[in-house]
């Protein structure tokens, strides 16, 4: 009987911890991981494009079901984000977001090595 009670408490604590970690992670992910740099004002259309890009990535990653392929699927989703971000950099070479986008892409490339 005591083992069942401890198991139930452990299960409850695990669920509480999962909720706390998820809510903290979602709050952190809600922010754009890029920052406009320099004296240029960030173009609202470019900002919206980047926000949409990262939001779609978060939603796609969140929709991946826990399976043996989940990690590979999330990696593929992130790789798609990187490809879209590289296209953004190429199309908006004068953007206030460029330096931050380059830094983000460099960090992702470093993690691959």
Report on the structure:
This protein is an all-alpha fold and 113 residues long. It has one domain. The chain has helices spanning 2-29, 44-62, 70-91, 98-112. The radius of gyration is 19 Å and the shape is elongated. Mean pLDDT is 79; it is low at 17-29.
Descriptive keywords:
113 residues, elongated
Strand content: under 5%
Alpha-carbon distance between the two ends: 51 Å
Helix and strand composition category: mainly alpha
Average pLDDT for all residues: 79
User: How many helices in DSSP terms?
Assistant: 4
* Low-confidence blocks of residues: 17-29
Characterize the largest beta sheet: strand count, sense, and whether it forms a barrel: none
The backbone outline, from C-alpha atoms, is elongated
Multimeric organization: single chain
Helix content: over 70%
Domain tally: 1
Along the chain, the helix and strand elements come as HHHH
| Number of DSSP strand runs | 0
Radius of gyration: 19 Å
Briefly summarize what is shown.
The chain is mainly alpha-helical and 113 residues long.
List the helices and strands and how they pair.
Layout (H helix, E strand, L loop, with lengths): L1 H28 L14 H19 L7 H22 L6 H15 L1
Helix pairs in contact: 2-3, 3-4
């Amino acid at each position: 009987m005591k083992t069942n009670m401890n198991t139930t408490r452990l299960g409850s604590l695990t669920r509480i911890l999962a909720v706390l970690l998820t809510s903290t992670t979602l709050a952190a992910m809600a922010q754009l991981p890029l920052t406009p740099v320099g004296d240029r004002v960030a173009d609202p259309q470019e900002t919206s494009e980047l926000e949409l890009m990262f939001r779609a990535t978060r939603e796609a990653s969140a929709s991946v079901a826990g399976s043996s392929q989940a990690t590979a699927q999330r990696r593929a989703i992130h790789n798609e984000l990187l490809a879209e971000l590289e296209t953004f950099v190429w199309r908006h070479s004068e953007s206030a977001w460029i330096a931050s986008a380059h830094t983000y892409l460099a960090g992702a490339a470093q993690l691959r090595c």
